[in-house]
Automatic annotation (TrEMBL):
This is Amino acid/amide ABC transporter ATP-binding protein 1, HAAT family. SUPFAM superfamilies: P-loop containing nucleoside triphosphate hydrolases. GO terms for molecular function: ATP binding; ATP hydrolysis activity. It comes from the Bacteria. Keywords: ATP-binding, Nucleotide-binding, Transport. InterPro entries: AAA+_ATPase, ABC_AA/LPS_Transport, ABC_transporter-like_ATP-bd, ABC_transporter-like_CS, BCA_ABC_TP_C, P-loop_NTPase.
Amino acid sequence: MAEPAHAPALAVHGLRKAFGGLTATDDVSLDLRPGEIHALIGPNGAGKSTLIGQIAGWIAPDAGRVELGGEDVTALDVAARARLGLGRSFQVSSLAAPLSARRNAMIAAQARQGSSFRFLRPVAWDRGLREAADAALARVGLSPRAQVPAAELSHGERRLLEVACALALGPKALLLDEPMAGLGMEGSARLGDLLEALKAEAPILLVEHDMDAVFRLADRISVLVAGRVIASGSVEEIRGDAEVRRAYLGED
Ligand SMILES: Nc1ncnc2c1ncn2[C@@H]1O[C@H](COP(=O)(O)OP(=O)(O)OP(=O)(O)O)[C@@H](O)[C@H]1O
């Protein structure tokens, strides 16, 4: 049966996670709709990384569920969620420093193509991965740097490579945790343009501290404070929300 046009690419319902006496995420529900950038903002310690960990699959929630394209993936591990099309890039680099940009993207592509290409001979399998990797590198403008070891790329290029690795997976949804960090104005403007182009292919759940970038790029914003979503809406709605201004933006 065809999915309804507006079925969320990703949805979480009632996610809860406590570390000892501290509830890091408290009954969090939100969704990611086709074509959108949904920004998740909140002060330090609000629970953003814990929420991302539960969505990606390396933190098991105490309660609640995660759905990808309408399928309940709560019991699946990180690799299985990636195979289903959950692409991600994180604050802490997951690149293999000595390997070339292309090889890093090929490893990422393998996460999806490993099973579907297994019946092919190794040479053809390698070619398939390489094509997926090169297409992803081209999307982020890194084709000329394909053979350069990740360790020799600039900080901005490494962030772009991380996005390329997420794309090589052929994602249905993207989780990006602070992709703008350390990029500077020019780098973050370039990455912002890229994210705006990418969202039509795979909607993006964006955790970002750079409020200028968030207000420029987001179609919707959810605000997490002390583990709870205190507001969710358009940029205008969040800007005008008195509770958000008080709890997060630090205004009276
Ligand atoms: N593994 C853990 N064990 C114990 N406490 C944890 C653990 N991970 C996170 N916490 C606590 O849970 C709360 C939420 O942390 P989290 O890292 O999810 O917040 P965040 O919104 O991502 O913060 P930041 O913006 O600083 O990255 C914090 O109080 C943190 O100290």
